[in-house]
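Morning F.,

Quick status update on the modeling queue. The single chain you submitted on Monday has been processed. Sequence for confirmation:
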Amino acid sequence: MEKMHFHAAGIDIGSRKVFVGVENSPVRCFETFTSDLVSLGDYLLDNKVTTVAMEATGVYWYVLYDILVDAGLDVWLVDGRQTRQLPGRKTDVKDCQWIQQLHSYGLLNRCYVSEGLIKELRSYQRLREDHLRSAAMHVQHMQKALIEMNIRLPEVLSQVHGASGMALITAILGGERDLRKLVSLCHKSIREKKEEELLKALQGHYTPQGLFALEQALKAYQFYQGQILDCDRQIDATLQKINKDKQLPPGTGGGKRKTIRHNKPTIKGLGDHLLKIFGGRDATKLPGFTDYNWLQLYAEVGSDLSNWPSEKHFTSWLGLAPGQDRSGKKNKNKSKGKPTVGQIFKQMAHGLLNSKYIGWGAFARRLRGRKGLAIAIKATARKLAAQYWRLIVKGSEFVENGLQAYENILKEQKERRLVKLAFELNRELVPV
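Structure tokens below.
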């Protein structure tokens, strides 16, 4: 092997100390305070280091990465799985030396790192997702408190935290016990279809501890709804900064956008913001895409997907393509982890499984019957990711021809197989 980086350093990052390995120099140790990290950057410059590699360890690398980039160094953030040591030789000192050695020979791959306003947007978006998970947890707490008092709202209402459910819970905590008055708070469609069932469900066994638990869960849920709204305001402000001097391309915007069914952000003109960023290329034309999951993808990978040379590189980075682990006659599927962006595509693919008029939904159901649910979702997610890369990088338009077109393709494939089989058996196909 030949060296590719002659002035390289390796860094092992911890919560308390940072170890730095420079070729032909003893390992130096720095504390994680800001002044010490600045001294670390000066030390690397004094030793004429031009490029640095370090592992993506939790959130410890954030500040150090920015300090080293500002110092003019070429910083490589790498996946920790690439730098695994041999068994029994795992220490912080040896880790930084091993990272330096691998980096100097060009054996490490650089991770994608967001910059500027996209990095800021990603922070707000990830924080919003954390609040959504916390809010969902407190919805379960409300359901548990109701069941403990044998108030069977979860069995009657599809969403306890919907408009009707929240109105009922608020009234119950306010002391209302008249069943007819409680039912009158529900939406008209619910009253027409489920009035008798609701009357039976609301006839519970109220207890002080149950009402207290319900009140605590409701307040916690409302608190996180407020936090989500604050995140939406920050996301909106960041999008306005990004699109400060941009205009909608001619012929785009103004039309009706796809409905966002769950966790819709309170951002006015979200679709127009995204169309401005991507120069009029509309990802919502792809099946399964809405403005919200398009925003999630933009916050994670930005708008320039040319960082990945091809759609195969992109789907491999997402963890949606099988890894290579072949030895002799053995061919194993090597796991590539569960990257956040890959999980977004999987969520979209899962939503396509029950679609009645989309061809990829039929593809996913057909594959589910043969290979199982997990493989079907992963294969469909890979199709979505590949088409998204083509749309953003090459601008190729995509038109969903629907279930009938997919079934016509399957019919043609079956006919070709029948013709081939008849030829092999010296038979003739006769139409009925």
